[in-house]
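Suppose a classmate hands you a notebook page containing two proteins, each written out with its sequence and a corresponding row of structure tokens. How would you begin to make sense of it? This section walks through that situation. The first entry is reproduced here exactly as it would appear on such a page.
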Amino acid sequence: MDKQEWKKIDALELLERVQKLYRDIMDVCTSSDLPPILVIGVLDSVKTRVHIMVNTAALVEGSYRGNSDIYV
């Protein structure tokens, strides 16, 4: 895997990115022929995974740096 360069962003920018990602996934799911229960499952899974990733990143960065900067 290539080494990733981390970029510091603020919480508002992260929220905007997550909302855009969620809307994009929702658009794909709702425009497909998936049954509604699968669409709900996909969206719920994405929401849960993003929530875990953001909280983990904030906790890890905060504990290492002594602050709550978020890097993505």
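The notebook's second entry, a different protein, reads as follows.
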Amino acid sequence: MRSVDELRVHQAAVALAVDVYGVTTCFPQEERYGLISQMRRAAVSIGSNLAEGWGRGSRANLANFTRLARGSAY
């Protein structure tokens, strides 16, 4: 594989972030800087961590950043 975009887990992470952004548009406006913000940042963080791990070029870094991505999912 030449790109992080070829990883199915990264594709799923991007799709999740898009879904979270869509769902949170229906949340009450008073949650804009609380729950909405936290959910969106966590969702984006998953794909970002996977991409960073991939970009660092070693299996060890990818494994470490994959664990960080998993943490963002919880």
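A careful reader of the second entry would note: The chain has a mean pLDDT of 95.
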